[in-house]
Amino acid sequence: MSRKNQTLGEFIIENQSSFKYSSGELSSLLNSIRLAAKVVNHEVNKAGLVDIIGAAGDTNIQGEDQQKLDVYANDKFIQTLTKRNIVCGIASEEEDDFITINSQDENHQNKYVVLIDPLDGSSNIDVNVSVGTIFSIYRRVTPVGTPVQLEDFLQKGSEQVAAGYVVYGTSTMLVYTTGDGVNGFTLNPAIGSFYLSHPAMEFPEDGSIYSVNEGNYIHFPQGIKNYIKFCQEENESENRPYTSRYIGSLVSDFHRNMIKGGIYMYPQSLKNPEGKLRLLYECNPMAFLAEQAKGKSSDGFTRTLDVVPTELHQRIPFICGSKNMVEKAESFMQKEK
Ligand code: AHG
Ligand code: MN
Ligand code: MN
Fold first, then answer.
1. In this structure, which residue's CA is closest to atom 6 in ligand 1?
2. What is the Cα–Cα distance from 316 to 307, expressed in whole angstroms?
3. Does residue 86 sit in helix, strand or coil?
4. β-bridge mates for residue 233, sequence order
């Protein structure tokens, strides 16, 4: 039985014994993520103090400037997972191609791949606003003991074994699911341990917060424009107009909406015809968490977790949050089809 003062380490051990994949590999994997999260947290917390902020000078495959902390977080997560010989492959927002992990041990049976956005919301680092890490875990589909292939990463989101995020906020939290609900753990920085603080997290069925970059309004599809107008209309019995909240860190916007009830939207636009967010390491893990927390996620027409990926860095329109709100937004989208 989970209890509120349980540490994340204890929780992983306890829940792993009854878990359907019981080799211990998933526990080790989650523990590695826990460790890397603490190291990255330490660095994020002093971002204002040291000369680590600002563009590193590189440009990633999406043509975006990399911040130094993106590179640092990327390295830490990859190092932790590689050195401990826990997974057979990693794909990251910051790497053009996936990384193959060739074990020295010829008997190795590593069967999981990890997809990661090491630092989400990185434009917020310079201004001391919450950022995050997003991760997604699958069982490989090609045989164990052989090098991983692209198809191991291009699986539908519904195949995820686990997913989660770390939010480096006013408190640092790690929130994850292994397909049996969503649990949130808060880091006690004095002790360096995550404690179960938010057991069985759920989106309220309805909410009154909408989160979207309204600066792009003019370029949005008509259905989204109409839904935004609906959010702004006066209707006392339905608690409208809703409140607008947009941090610009998906992790933080999602986290707030899950606790308070709300909807996050990053639709397609003239500027980003496929949307902006990446299917494999942003939308799918969040969609898995949302569904496990009784919320919903789609592009307005298709359930996010049903989309068949074709590329590692694929983008997709994303609508995610409280069930009734997402369904309402979908109905506006579908009316304009
Ligand atoms: P990343 O920092 O990993 O590139 O992700 C940023 C994403 C997401 O976190 C956020 O919700 C969105 O981009 C913000 O985009 P806009 O600035 O276009 O609103
Ligand atoms: Mn991101
Ligand atoms: Mn990122």
1. 121
2. 9
3. coil
4. none
Coil, helix or strand for 165? strand
Closest listed ligand to the CA of 40 = 3
- Nearest residue by C-alpha to atom 14 in ligand 1: 248
- The CA-atom distances, in angstroms, between 209 and each of 25, 163, 242, 285, 330 are 39, 24, 6, 21, 16
Domain ranges (residues) in the chain: 8-198, 209-335
State whether the beta carbon of 130 lies less than 6 angstroms from ligand 1.
no
List of residues 6+ apart from 331 with CB closer than 8 A: none
- Closest ligand 1 atom to 122 CA: 2
The pTM assigned to this predicted structure is: 0.94
**8-198 maps to which CATH number?**
3.30.540.10
pLDDT tens, 24-56?
889 999 999 999 999 999 989 887 765 555 556
Q: Please work out whether the CB of residue 136 comes within 6 Å of at least one atom of ligand 1.
A: no
Beta strands in 255-302 (DSSP E): 262-266, 296-298
Q: CA-to-CA distance for 222 and 278, rounded, in angstroms?
A: 23
Ligand 1 center from residue 251 Cα (angstroms): 9
CA of 10 to the centre of ligand 1 (A): 33
Polymer length in residues for the chain:
337
Spatial separation of the C-alpha atoms in residues 161 and 183, rounded to whole Å: 15
Ligand minimally distant from the alpha carbon of residue 65: 1
* Residues 277-326: tens digit of each pLDDT: 999 999 999 999 999 999 999 999 999 999 999 999 999 999 999 999 99
CB-count exposure of residue 78 (10 Å: 0-12, 13-18, 19+): buried
Alpha carbon 200 to chain centroid distance? 18
- Domain 209-335 belongs to what topology? D-Maltodextrin-Binding Protein; domain 2 (3.40.190)
Q: Which helix (H) or strand (E) holds 197?
A: strand 193-198
Strands 296-298 and 172-177: unpaired
